[in-house]
Amino acid sequence: MIESPHGRMAQRLALAIPALLLGGAYISEYVFGLFPCEMCWWQRWPHFAALGFAALSIVAPPKRVLVTLSALAMVVSGLIGGFHAGVEYGWWEGITDCAVTAAVAGVSAVDAIMTAPIVRCDKSPWDLFGISLAGWNFLISCGAGCANMALLFKGRA
């Protein structure tokens, strides 16, 4: 059961971490103009799934399974982020010719395509302490996913 204090904490983290990371991604995009590349989007999809599993765990059984799926989805996002960070740091090549044109609102489709900035997957638009956003996603998502799993197993004892 998830009624243990550790299980409830895992459930709360499973809801909070993907919500905060997705919120940060959208704030960086819409407030600070850091448009996502293709691999950035790849990292968001598992967080959407993690958020959905965590939200579902609040209202539907089996709660432990849903929180576990949320934790696994966070780890998947983190692993994609780790791969993306490696591409940004030049450790290896990306698996696609990854460049996306950022959407420009309020203009015709042709003008939007012609004036939109190109967002490359191999260039980090921002970093903190030398760690790119993809690198931070790797650290936070993998850490939180593993912490959630540890809390769930600790809650069983």
Automatic annotation (TrEMBL):
One of its GO terms (biological process) is protein folding. It is a multi-pass membrane protein. GO terms for cellular component: membrane. Pfam families: DsbB (PF02600). It is found in: Membrane. The chain crosses the membrane at residues 12-35, 41-59, 66-87, 133-153. It comes from the Bacteria. GO terms for molecular function: protein-disulfide reductase activity. Keywords: Membrane, Transmembrane, Transmembrane helix. This is Disulfide bond formation protein B. It comes from Pontixanthobacter aestiaquae.
